[in-house]
Design a protein that fits this description.
Strand order of the largest sheet: 5-8-1-9
Number of helices: 12
Structural class: alpha/beta
Shape: globular
Number of strands: 13
Distance between the termini: 33 Å
Order of helices and strands: EHHHHEEHEHHHEEEHEEHHEEEEH
Largest sheet: 4 strands, mixed
Length: 390
């Protein structure tokens, strides 16, 4: 298909990012900034699955939707979201979702358009219980995979990068650091948990393959598009942390592959380097379906960008304000292919990374004299973009 190599989320935390994916909006507009708030009825009807439903599509959600405390089951033709990580019989969630997806596809007719969302929890960690650290729940058949491989240690996993953070950030109360202790803080833990992470990702690869094979077996591939993405990235020890949240590359960079299975598709084996965001997924899907995009959506139809019918964005506004210091210092910023600017708003502390020169974000140059003009310019752009996204 077409692989968008520079795809990012506008907020790297599950519920807020999922709300942005569904609505095509920044958090500043959809206002969902926690784990309990859901869409109003009016807002839900303008999410892309409901716009598709109004256009005649059957809609199905299998796996955790993850927006709001009250599941919006009544809006979908099929709702099967409460799937455990492991059944009593030992069926792993990835396999469970896959089996349900294959059964759903068996029921589809070639002349009935459908939308099917599969929301896998892998490769998310399982929170620890009874004082134990978090861990990964791996499918039995993959537990020995990669056992003879030494996983490479990230450059910024070296202690000096964590120690370079300011005092308000450099604390074990920081959730990114707290979870790092249980998963990556020793060489043995690092190897075990990074391997488990990729074992889970391999399970997802297998699941996607089974779904695509089923589409082909049923000849549904002749008019189906498959999209693979995530609601955030994940740090495996980079900058001495585990997780996402902040604006660092591993936390905000996500996959986006759009595979148009139709025989006449011209979007095959293409690498697109334009900046793409989670808020672009909704208008892109609606564009492919030939359905009008609600005016409230802030994202762009990525195919129009690739075809140069719309200009490519040069930067985007990033924020994470779900929690506060010391657990998760609130951060806003501006990100492009060449720089990352962060403003920790509770502490009036700025960071600037020249990612063209230091792609692994190894040096904060916000206090370097030679970067002061650039910092001032980016700060002004950040403030302007903050006003524009509401």
């Amino acid at each position: 298909g077409i692989r968008f190599t520079n795809t990012y989320v506008t907020t790297a935390i599950c519920s807020v990012s999922r709300a942005s994916i569904l609505s095509g909006q920044h958090k500043a507009r959809h206002k969902i900034n926690d784990f309990v708030t859901g869409f109003s009825d009016e807002a839900m009807r303008k999410t892309y699955p409901m716009v598709l439903k109004s256009a005649g599509y059957k809609t199905a959600q299998i796996g955790f939707l993850g927006v709001g405390k009250t599941p919006p089951a009544q809006y979908f033709d099929l709702w099967d979201a409460q799937i455990p990580l492991m059944t009593k019989e030992g069926l792993h969630q990835t396999d469970n979702i896959t089996e349900k997806a294959l059964a759903y596809l068996d029921q589809q007719k070639e002349n009935q358009p459908f939308y099917l969302a599969l929301s896998f929890t892998s490769a998310h960690e399982v929170d620890g219980q009874n004082g134990n650290p978090a861990t990964y729940l791996v499918q039995e058949r993959y537990k020995q995979l990669y056992q003879d491989i030494d996983m490479p240690i990230p450059t910024t996993a070296a202690p000096e990068y964590w120690n370079s953070f300011p005092d308000f950030f450099r604390t074990n109360e920081n959730i990114g650091r707290g979870r790092w202790h249980g998963l990556f803080s020793t060489p043995a833990l690092f190897q075990e948990n990074v391997k488990n992470y990729y074992r889970l990702v391999t399970g997802l690869d297998e699941a996607v393959g089974k779904v695509v094979d089923k589409l082909k077996a049923l000849h549904l591939d002749e008019n189906t598009i498959v999209i693979y993405t995530s609601d955030h990235g994940f740090s495996l020890g980079e900058h001495g942390m585990m997780g996402k949240w902040y604006g660092y590359e591993k936390g905000i960079h996500v996959p986006l592959i759009i595979n148009d299975l139709r025989a006449n598709s011209k979007w095959r084996n293409i690498k697109a380097e334009q900046l793409a965001l989670n808020i672009d997924i909704a208008p892109t899907i609606l564009g492919m379906a030939g359905v009008a995009t609600p005016a409230e959506m802030q994202g762009m139809d990525l195919f129009q960008v690739v075809q140069k019918k719309k200009p490519e964005r040069k930067y985007f506004f990033y924020e994470h304000t779900v929690f506060a210091s010391p657990m998760l210092p609130k951060v806003e910023g501006l990100i492009s292919k060449d720089f990352k600017y962060f403003n920790y708003t509770e502490h009036q502390f700025e960071s600037l990374y020249d990612t063209k020169k230091h792609p692994e974000e190894t040096k904060d140059v916000a206090r370097d004299k030679q970067y002061q003009k650039k910092l001032s310019k980016i700060r002004a752009l950040y403030l302007s973009e903050k006003r524009n996204i509401e």
